[in-house]
């Protein structure tokens, strides 16, 4: 991912927090000579060897998984807040742009089988059920229901490289930076408010 130096984020703590909070990503690989992409939750974790990984699963009916064994190189893409930035908000002439946060995770994928499949599902469900009034637990599901796990391909991705971009108008002076925040809040969409909130975390 091309990222000018001013927008690079190399703070591993911030990146990990971002991945945990924005875990619905896009898994990309090559299968049968074609690029394939699937939108799925990809959870950050550490394996038994102490290596940083992403874990997840896709349907067996999805042909993308057949490329995992032919070429284990994959890319996972994660997006955060983003919004259009009008140059009419500046006190000088310039071009419009876009503010956004994105993380690209490169790694080597391997298929998980046996008890590892259930363990992967358990961690995923526990994470997203923790705030439910009546949380569901994998351990409590009937054997008949759990037979559906035969229809998925679970995997883990050993992370080899992370590229993170945080483009939030860092190249503007304090006056224009604050104006951008104000104008984003005026637009009052989910994305514009989230972008403004992100900009407020690191005021100029």
Automatic annotation (TrEMBL):
SUPFAM superfamilies: FMN-binding split barrel. It comes from the Bacteria. Coiled coil: none annotated. InterPro entries: Split_barrel_FMN-bd (IPR012349), TR_PAI2-type (IPR007396). This is Negative transcriptional regulator, PaiB family.
